């Protein structure tokens, strides 16, 4: 998948986790990706759920070290793209 598709999927899964799929049309995706996870209602358990979902979909595995570095959705996108590239 290309970066745009991965970005859209990350946002879609995140909005499902916070029970706000209707927000999708109103969200500025670039700002949303850079917003701290806690500010959008994503706690550490939800981050884990999000990452596990994306790992399964994209066939990648993120290490514990990588997981603790995640502060926003952009971090997840970067990690997924890096894993796919290398």
Q: What sort of overall outline do the alpha carbons produce when their principal axes are compared?
A: globular
What separation lies between the terminal Cα atoms? 14 Å
Proportion of beta-strand residues: under 5%
Largest sheet: none
- List low-pLDDT spans: none
Structural class: mainly alpha
Number of helices: 5
Q: What does the oligomeric state look like here? A: single chain
SSE order in H/E notation? Answer: HHHHH
Rg is 12 Å
Instruction: Give me the count of strands.
Output: 0
Helix fraction bin: 55-70%
Give average pLDDT, whole number.
88
Describe the structure using short key phrases:
86 residues, mainly alpha, 5 helices, 63% helix, globular
Give an overview of the whole structure.
With 86 residues, this protein is mainly alpha-helical. Helix content is 63%, strand content 0%. The chain is built from five helices and no strands. The chain is globular and about 35 Å long. It starts with a helix and ends with a helix. The mean pLDDT is 88.
Spell out the blueprint of helices and strands.
Layout: H1 3-17, H2 29-34, H3 44-58, H4 64-68, H5 73-85
Compose a concise summary of this entry.
The chain has 86 residues and is mainly α. It is 63% helix and 0% strand.
